Hints:
Radius of gyration: 36 Å
Number of helices: 26
Number of strands: 17
Strand content: 5-15%
Helix content: 55-70%
Structural class: alpha+beta
Amino acid sequence: MNASSERATLVLRFFVPYVLILLGALLSGWFAYHKTSSLLETETMKSNTAALGQIREALDGRFAEVETIAQQMASESKIQSFQFVKAPFEQTNPFRLWDLEKSLFDYRMTNHFIVDYFIAYKNSGMFISPRKVYNGSQFYGLQLRYEGKSYEQWYKELFSRYYYKTYQPGMPVLYEGKPYSVVSYMQSFGAKDGGGVISVLIDNKQIQEMLRHIDSEQGGFAYVADQNGNLISYVGMDPTTANMKALPVKEGFSQFRWNGKKMLITQTTSRYNGWTYVSAQPEAVVLAKANYIKELTLTVFMLAMGAGLVFAALLAYRSSRPVFKMLQLLPLKPAGSKKRPLGNVMDDIRSSVSALVESHGELSSRLEAQVPMLRNVFFERLLQGGFTSMDEVEAAMEHARIELKGHYFAAAAIQIRGYHAPYNEEMLTELDIVKLNVRDRIGTIGADQQALAQVHDLGENKLALLFHGEGAAPDAFMNGLQRQISQLGDHWKQASHSGLWIAVGTCQTRLTEVYRSYGEAEFLLVHAAWSERQPVLFYDEAEVPPPVYFYPSDVEQRLIQLVRSGNKPETARLIAQIREENDGGRPLPVVAQKLLAQELCGTLMKCCELSPASEDMLSEEMKVVLEVSDSELPPDEAVHKLFQALMQLCRKHEERKRSHNDSLTSKLMSYIDNHFSDPDISLAMLAKEARNSEAYVSYFFKEQTGMNFSDYLEHVRMEEAKRLLIGSALPVSDIAVRTGYLSLNSFSRAFKRANGVSATEYRKVHQPREA
Length: 771
């Protein structure tokens, strides 16, 4: 066969598959079209369901937090005691009222979901909230006013019935002279005839903002309805429409005609409180992309089919060229030999590899984009004392790609002067520029210094600095740090019209204690007397009024975390620090000791609330709280008992954690002992048995046994193999199968690697010889 006829044959072999593919596509095109369109519609609606489910889970968590806050206040003895008081401002009641007002925590500082809350007493008509005490008419006139309700209507409705986890739909109100839309959570307490009501005002705008993420702007709406069908919050609906009950739709997604439009309804029900979350959007809007893709696919498909036959010959010719050149380089086949069909396999392989490389690059880019967020989370947790051990800190640093070298650490808080709330967009932009300049300057002055600095943005006009490095002693490290920060202050004074207040905490030798240095810097930033001549202050050198007693909120949070984690050494260490700070100088006044005891009571209760403890364990801590509440007990003895109770609770958590670890370790080792003969046994099977991730099971197994999973599995198999070699006459090949090896070669290599000799030699040496 000459070259031209061979080329024609090759082109024909490429041409025929193209034609067959085109003809087959014509027959299966309609079927594929309908399947594709159905799948696109289903996936679109599933994505809507998933988005609605995420909002439901987020709001369930927020509502659960509100209910927990209300239940805690309803069970508070100070709040309960005032339900029987009819004249709260007479005799000794004002002091008790002041004490109650001081004990109320302002949740607005930490929870923007809550506008505020108040406690109303029926007998006395007294209304109290953080930092405020009013009678009913004053409260309704000065603090809170519902739109369209008179004081008499509101007051009668407030005490007309007994509330239990009752939510009132979002309504417009004036609170402290500002307009809000609030969802009111009502919880009664005490006796029905003379108790009171706790009302938490929830910011309805935040709920609506979350609903807007799934609400279409082209005629859609979304709402949240309680288990009785009452609308709690909604977007995209006019007020007259919102007064009706929830739509009679089913779980998942369905169709519904609304105001003449065909709507796609997505509904999900909360397992927490039975509320329904509904998103309704016009079908044309939801499926716009799906319909566009269907139409585009159909058009392209039909055009491709029409032009396919025309271009098939050209494509066959072009595809055959590289193959033909390769064939010319191959040796000639003998005459009469059967030729093999040809195919463009190399292009398929090349495209697959290219797609894999591209996918890998995209995944790497996405992971790299997450690093700044991981670093922010790490520094936030470190400065708040959220790490209970150095192992936890090191694992978090490795995950966030952060390296903090050195034996000494210190934290500083920077406040940029000249910027105060409320902030507008222009001010925030300027602050971002200032922060970038501060970061750049810190990088330049830290390059040749003993202490290296890490910068963490605290938002708005604040930055945090974390210094780490070496030094002959803590004093030497802090002296170098003082020079470094002074350079920053001097440079900034010359380079910018906006000044900096820089507060520096004390030196720490452990990363887990950095929160103390940061807490000192924050305290200094708030309470120190700042001046233009002294923009940098160190905690050890600054003159600030000492607190009545030492028990800041960051120390309390760390104590709670340590107790709950069962970290007994660190808990004891922190309690010793609190004792030293309060007893190291002059003795605390009796009033301060009593206040410290009250705060420790709250800490003890917080440690119990979220711990999965039995009722007996909780009752022990309750007994301690009741015992130290006795006014005849000396305050110092009460504080001592509370510290003992915290240590006892920490030990219980430690024992429970150890018991759980021992149980899981035993379960994992038992599973391996029973399934080592299975060749398919793997870490994935072990993780499935433990109902945990593979990464966690691998880490946990190594931590508890000191061996990797694969090493322990091989050890078990080798022990069984040695037992069979000595105690039986089974062939080595059968022993390999019984110990989980697929082939004799793999068993032999593993046995020799583990024991230094082959299985046959081991049997000869250790098997008892017959007499």
